[in-house]
Amino acid sequence: MSHPPAKDELGPKVVDARFVLGVPAAAQLPPPTLMEVAFAGRSNVGKSSLLNTLMQRHGLARTSGTPGCTRQLNVFEVALSEDRRFHFVDLPGYGYARVSKAERRSWGPMIEGYLRERPSLRALFLLVDVRRGLEDDDVALLEFLTAVRPEGSCRVYVVATKLDKIVRAKQKPAVEAVKSVAKVPVVGFSSETGAGRDELWRRIEKAAQHADD
Ligand code: GTP
Ligand code: MG
Questions:
Q1: Is ligand 1 within 6 A of the CB of residue 63?
Q2: What is the pLDDT, as a whole number, of residue 142?
Q3: 125 pLDDT more than 60
Q4: Are 93 and 84 in contact (CB under 8 A)?
Q5: Ligand with the closest atom to the CA of 188
Q6: Per-residue pLDDT tens over the stretch 43-90
Q7: Residue 210 has what pLDDT?
Q8: Helix, strand, or coil here: 189?
Q9: Residues 14-49: tens digit of each pLDDT
Q10: CB of 171 sitting under 6 A from ligand 1
Q11: How far is 193 from 165, CA to CA, in rounded Å?
Q12: Which of 10, 57, 63, 165 to mutate to test the pocket of ligand 1 (most atoms within 8 A of CB)?
């Protein structure tokens, strides 16, 4: 990409977005009435920031420079139009060394329970820092998902985020490097510039159409 994305390249307009609730366990989630999309990844990788960019709502999902900001399953309802409504689920981050061991362990069952039990989950976006690529715990999460979900029930994508942190000329090669090891499609993204937002929405809508088949 030789230029920052123009406004009309950034994707669809969100007509409604609101926080529904945050819960400590999948069993307490609202009924699975809408197609659901979840966002997973290491602490501080930018899940909540990405959600705000997708939803065009600055600050609706809480973000922080301090890892471990999101500690529950946070559910949002998002609409592109009256009949294109989705649940987005912001998952707690994992794997950050500065968070206490007990806390790290407490999030594992929450995320695993969610991935295992949520029937309406149709797409999972796994965020990785484009400068670090997939790490062991990211691979473990993908393997867990494959093991517990019926085949084809949940589309999986990797998002290589914080693209703006590297110089433009190196962005494409960096995303390619992530692609070369990921076994699923990879989308380059930045919450700062909005790059990749359009592609993420296209993939979400595609998963929704598939769900309606
Ligand atoms: P946890 O909830 O702790 O798991 O973190 P998270 O993955 O939700 O990350 P969050 O969105 O809170 O962002 C963490 C930090 O990274 C914040 O300081 C954000 O401003 C910053 N950040 C997130 N996305 C981007 C991005 O695309 N580019 C840049 N430059 N900074 C980003
Ligand atoms: Mg967060």
A1: yes
A2: 93
A3: yes
A4: no
A5: 1
A6: 999 999 999 999 999 999 999 888 777 789 999 999 999 999 999 999
A7: 77
A8: coil
A9: 999 999 999 988 999 999 999 999 999 999 999 999
A10: no
A11: 11
A12: 63
pLDDT at residue number 23: 94
- Separation in Å, CA 198 to CA 6, 14, 47, 119, 194: 11, 12, 16, 26, 8
- The span from the CA of 213 to the CA of 209, in Å, is 7
Mean pLDDT along residues 195-213: 87
Q: Does ligand 1 have an atom closer than 6 angstroms to the CB of 45?
A: yes
Give ∠ CA 6-179-3 in degrees, rounded to 5: 20
Please state the pTM of the whole predicted model: 0.93
**Beta strand pairing call for 84-90 and 35-41:** parallel
d(CA 43, CA 66): 9
Query: Which token pair is 123?
Result: 């797409």
Element (H, E) at 139: helix 136-148
